[in-house]
Specification:
- With 217 residues, this protein is mainly α.
- The protein is 78% helix and 0% strand.
- Helix 3 packs antiparallel against helix 4.
- It is rod-shaped.
Length: 217
């Protein structure tokens, strides 16, 4: 703004040079700081009022051509500056918020990925009082809850699988034991049958001997 005032003075108050004020205020928008714009508007307002009075007192400074160096003309200039300042303040606030949101999302997504490549869902974006950030954090919280539920279900399923495997092994061992008992019973039965057959043969032989003795005179 001081540079704009210098240009106006060096051009002896040429009205066209006043457009530089609007150009410089637009450039200040790049700072995305409302106070920079407000300060610039206040500085140029003080400059206009002060230089108008100094020029009217023939102090060797210039603001406007002599025929236009009046309070009414200065107020018209001030009105345009105020309107532009209001618009730039609104836009700068929006731009600053968008920048904060973008930075918060960038930092959050960068923090989500650990060095080993795993995802840390316990991270959250910095709250900058924006709906987008609130929604983003809610999604992360929902994902974290879902993953915890799935992990718990997988753990329970693993335990149940281990229990079923243990029960299956126990059942198989019991069946194997029963099979061995059946085999022993079968072997004992077969041996008993063999012994009975031997006894039957022995009894037949004894009977044959006895009969033969009875037949002798």
């Amino acid at each position: 703004m001081f540079f704009a005032a210098l240009q106006i003075h060096q051009s002896f108050g040429m009205e066209e040079m006043h457009f530089g004020i609007f150009v410089y205020m637009a450039i200040l928008f790049a700072f995305r700081d409302q106070w920079v714009i407000i300060t610039a508007a206040v500085v140029i307002a003080v400059h206009h009022l002060l230089f108008m009075w100094l020029q009217q007192q023939n102090m060797g400074v210039y603001l406007l051509p002599e025929e236009y160096n009046t309070l009414s003309v200065v107020m018209i200039h001030a009105a345009y500056v105020i309107v532009e300042a209001i618009v730039l303040v609104v836009l700068s606030r929006q731009a600053l918020m968008e920048a904060k949101v973008s930075q918060a999302l960038f930092d959050a997504t960068d923090a989500l990925v650990e060095q080993d490549g795993s995802i840390a869902l316990n991270k959250r974006a910095t709250d900058v009082n924006a709906d987008v950030i609130h929604s983003f954090n809610k999604v992360l919280a929902s994902l974290q809850t879902t993953i915890k539920t799935l992990n718990q279900a997988a753990s329970d399923l693993h335990v149940q699988s281990d229990n079923l495997s243990a029960d299956g092994k126990s059942l198989a061992a019991g069946m194997e034991q029963k099979l061995k008992e059946v085999e022993r019973i079968a072997a004992a039965t077969e041996e008993m049958s063999y012994n009975l057959a031997g006894l039957h043969k022995l009894a037949a032989a004894v009977e044959l001997v006895v009969n033969s003795q009875h037949k002798q005179p």
